[in-house]
Amino acid sequence: MKFLHLSDLHIGKIVNGFSMLADQKHVFAQVTGYISSLKPDALIIAGDVYDRAIPGVEAVRVFDDFLTELAAMDVALLLISGNHDSPERLNYASRLLKDKRLYLYGAFDGAIHKVSLADEYGLVNFWLLPFIKPIAVRGMLAEQESESYDEMIKLVLAAANIDYSERNVLISHQFYSKAGLNLERSDSELNPIGGLDAVDAGLIGSFDYAALGHLHGRQSVGEEHIRYCGSPLKYSFSEWRQQKSITFVELGIKGQLTLSLLPLAPLHDMREIKGGIDILMNEEISGATDNEDYLRIILTDEEEIVDPLGKLRSVYPNIMSLGFENSRAGIDADTIKTDCETVEKLSPFELFAEFFLDMQGTPMNAEQMGIVRKAFERKVDEE
Q1: Are 143 and 159 in contact (CB under 8 A)?
Q2: pLDDT of residue 11
Q3: Positions of CATH 3.60.21.10 in the chain
């Protein structure tokens, strides 16, 4: 049995003001290309199809085009909802789509759904478990209640009566972890405080493969067969060093598993570059890589620069973030805190000074401070 493992599409996502739709269509074309060349039996999408519960019109169109292409190919689609999705929206027309071998399970109805596909060794059971919270399970499982995510998953699996002597694949979108294991997390994920959503990965260790969604960095959870495939694109600068891919899984007879990571090339890569503005704008430097990549630029110049963002965008049009790393920015950034408690204590002038530092990367000089102080005093007099 051969299948592709994909998750966390986040269709319609906007990163630092830039729409990712064109990038997403670019990477989906690579997914269908892999399906054409590798002829897998199934494509798994383990949740977070959309970036928000009510997706925009264009995001829905992109997903509709993707589904239409898949329906025309000889491949089964096994899809669940994630914590970003609206379960009911993903459930729409799911019974009709089964005739096209598109198996969509959005809204949890009290049980894991099973889809069995056959190969030369017999059946492989795919168990579809969309993202759920403990409160959603209450009243669904023979009056048993679960207070934690751990207990919830344990109850759901027990109610499924899974025969682990057969070949079984779990598709799930939860935060599975393991004691002593430091999983890589990203800023673009929704991270509950204190890891309250964590589920012991040992609960799903008996599956032949666990196709997980939620974490954006590709990684296994303690054992090779319990795996996050990661998002197909970089959605925050905490991911800029990650290599994105789709996981190709081959199941042989019971106990035989082979994994391959198939690269996904972005339309625009996400990178961080650092240096003085004159060096970064030099043609030899800017021409050495794709200057249309999504960039976080950190300027190291000590002198004040007039309109640094405007100058840099003449060479690098897709700058997402601009920061400064110099002696003045470093000193002042440490002295001004931006937490809520401190903000409440700052005067309007101090808040503006922090804003100026954040935007310009350098503190106001004496003349600028005088102008701002007079402006605030004039405003107070008028009121």
Answers
A1: no
A2: 97
A3: 2-263
Sorted by sequence, the CB contacts under 8 Å of residue 120 that are 6+ apart come out as none
Beta strand 294-299 pairing with 270-275: parallel
- Confidence (pLDDT) at 351: 75
Q: Could you tell me if 298 and 272 are in contact, meaning their C-beta atoms sit under 8 angstroms apart? A: yes
Q: Which residue from 128, 148, 130 is spatially nearest to 138, judged by alpha carbons? A: 148
**pTM of the predicted model, to two decimals?**
0.83
Question: 362: closest CA among 321, 322, 302, 319?
Answer: 302
Give the N- to C-terminal CA distance of the chain in Å, as an integer.
Answer: 74
Q: How many CB atoms lie within 10 A of CB 73?
A: 15
d(CA 28, CA 45): 12
* Assigned architecture for domain 2-263: 4-Layer Sandwich (3.60)
Distance CA 70, CA 75 (A): 7
b (16+ CB within 10 A) / e for 343-354: eeeeeeeeebbb
Residues 68, 77: Cα–Cα separation, whole Å: 11
In this prediction, what percent of the chain has a pLDDT beyond 90?
67
Which residue has 């269709």 as its token pair? Answer: 11
pLDDT single digits (tens) 300-351: 998 888 999 999 999 999 999 999 988 766 544 333 334 444 455 567 777 7
Coil, helix or strand at residue 298: strand
pLDDT digits (tens, 9 = 90+) for 74-98: 899 999 999 999 999 998 888 888 8
- DSSP for 164-215, please give it: TTSEEEEEEESEEE-TT------TTS---GGGTTEEEGGGGTTSSEEEEES-
Local confidence band at 216 (pLDDT 50, 70, 90 cut-offs): very high
CA distances, 114 to each of 94, 123, 127, 345 (Å)? 14, 12, 5, 57
Q: Distance between CA 186 and CA 238 in Å, rounded?
A: 6
Who's near 295: CB < 8 A, 6+ residues apart?
Answer: 270, 271, 272, 273, 316, 318, 319, 320, 321
